[in-house]
Amino acid sequence: MTTAAAGGPRTYQVRTYGCQMNVHDSERISGLLEQAGYVRAGESDDSPDVVVFNTCAVRENADNRLYGNLGHLRPVKDRHPGMQIAVGGCLAQKDRGDIVRKAPWVDVVFGTHNIGSLPVLLERARHNAAAEVEILESLDVFPSTLPTRRESTYAGWVSISVGCNNTCTFCIVPALRGKEKDRRPGDILSEVRALVDEGVLEVTLLGQNVNSYGVEFGDRYAFGKLLRACGDIDGLERVRFTSPHPKDFTDDVIAAMAETPNVCHSLHMPLQSGSDDVLRAMRRSYRAERYLGIIDKVRAAMPDAAITTDIIVGFPGETEADFERTLDVVRAARFSSAFTFQYSKRPGTPAATMDGQLPKQVVQERYERLIACVEEITWAENKKLVGEAVEVLVAVGEGRKDERTGRLSGRARDGRLVHFDAGSYAGAIRPGDIVHTVVTYAAPHHLNADGEPLSHRRTRAGDATEAGRPARTPGVLLGLPTIGAPAAAPEPTSGCAVSH
Hints:
Helix content is 33%, strand content 19%. By secondary structure, the protein is an alpha/beta fold. Strand 20 (441-442) and strand 21 (447-449) form a beta hairpin. The protein is globular. It starts with 10 loop residues before the first strand and ends in a 27-residue tail after the last strand. The relative contact order is 0.11.
């Protein structure tokens, strides 16, 4: 058991930045630390024994954000001898030993490939009273094999692959996460069943390029087969996935979505740009016509499908005509939501050194026009649902105004956010329960249902919420090198690691 100086268990806090893969990894980090004897710090604890930053390197200012936060922690650490700070994730993989050079009060730096080493690195840093930097160049242990402390009783991320084989010029992920590595289908399904056994109702299959799943073992239809296999798991009510790449989207996946009852009719498919010239410069191996063709096929098979996307404005060399083509695709696609980004340089990416970097004011003006276009469409699409009944999986923290308005919130099967009045069920509805209600009002980013709910179904996920039990899943072994699960902090079994 890892113990604090006062004799009690050492406390930890994980601070997560970035994408869903980082959220997934942070659940593994928490599971590893708890297996090693740490306990999660309370929300009011401003000086836990261990603070772990799980970082993102995607944004241009990611470095400044990290070092600013590390700077704020320095006086806290000075006042609390024995406190440790660890930095992991994509920025750690990129900056390596520079982190300790810039912030010498950091105790541990670990990368995207060796999450499982964190407990032993913390112990080694304490024992040696010196910083430990361990960055591996390839995957040591598949993250999903590690013990997990899930944040939700009702929904869980399940990683089906890590890494990416694409070479998009704006993205640094392949350099930091490595080439795609796929899990075996049986291991994925075992993890899903373990979650369902804990009461989880909804699972999101996760990968940097989720629908290229199977490339490692040579089965281009593996992802569709996996979706259908999820349909055979009793108690699993909702299956989602993110994020697919248009170039790998095949008709069998559309058929699997349409024909498997628990696969939700929601699709997040990044567009990035509607201009073929910009897509070519981004090294995105599809064109606008191909993208819209996929959407047409999805809507033909599932007329109720809600389609969301990612769009980057102001990519180097983007002309006004290029931007107008993006608006044309947005109008044709009728997205239910869009995550919109102003292009910013990602250090280490080809796009960062391209000619034609656009002035900030040009990018800002186009961004505002894109937002206006997207919101006009999402509002119109949401208005079509007024008067319709929706099934809502009740969530925690989705509605920032819920306490003031007296509403609860959750997600419909198509992924839309719904704020609803509990009516006569007030006090009985728990996060994780299922409510059927009727939409009474639509806004660009959410729906309201202010009438009496049609029904309320108590679930095992709701029971777990009421009992304060988030799902905890043990590692699912893959036959890869693993740190095992001893009672004390584990020792690495993969030989010498690369250190700097």
